[in-house]
Design brief:
CATH architecture of the largest domain: Orthogonal Bundle
Shape: flat
CATH topology of the largest domain: MetI-like fold
Order of helices and strands: HHHHHHHHHHHHH
Largest sheet: none
CATH superfamily of the largest domain: MetI-like
Number of domains: 2
CATH class of the largest domain: Mainly Alpha
Helix content: over 70%
Number of strands: 0
Radius of gyration: 26 Å
Length: about 300
Amino acid sequence: MAPQQLEKEERSPAERPFARQLARLERWEKLTYLAFVMPALLLLAVLFVFPIIKFLLISVFDPTFTLDNFVRAFTRPVYLRIFWKTFEISLMTTLGALFLGYPVAYLFANVPTRVRNILLPLVLFPFWTNILVRMYAWMALLGHNGVINQLLVNGNLIGEPLPLLFNRFSVLVGMIHFMLPYMILTLYSVMSGIPNELMQAAASLGSPPWKRFYRIYLPLSMPGVGAGCLLVFILAIAFFVTPALLGSIRETMISQVIEREISEAFNWGFGAALSLILIVITTTLYVIYNRVMSIEKIHGE
């Protein structure tokens, strides 16, 4: 017999009206919640989901059913190289953001609240600045006659300006700078939930600091590492402004190809096919991460 049936039979006659009233309140609460959420869901469906589905259908109905756009994407070496370059730059961006963001998130999670309130706006400041402003600022800093080269030349550290702009280095600098807050905040959301008592207990047993970090803190922070890397990588493969402004033709990413196919070549079918491939890749990465390391571990079970 099901546990729910046993529970119903065990209730006394005086408790049954109360249980029915409680069930009605729960149903009313769900209906109230649905009433508040439904307008947002309808708006999202009309303005976001439906246009995307209609756009992606163009990839296979151009104007009749065809798979030529996907065959072109997977058989032309130029597009395969661009896909590979996109993944390579995105992976380097993810690793760079993790390398720089992990110590900052660790600092945030282990400093007093007063200090954290002072440091947190410094991390959030990039969110308050338009991405174009940030990229043009990097162009002024990394240019042939930019601030960095001028300081190095005037300090007699180099004889001639370094090629810091319009290459992969400048693209990675701009992308890591943009993605760093996402990585820091994702890591911090997990690190803030790690009990300090575990580290204190290990210290009381004579464990050195590096061993406490390696054996206790690092494994407990891995859900944040995985979620932060997944978030940064997915956002990075769709970057457009940064490689367009700071990179050269050698750093062309797949988002730039999609934009050119649609706005310049008016080849909506092929652009939609490339977009669908990106969606499938990002969805697959999310599913793999959710199977290996559940996304619920970020905020606890």
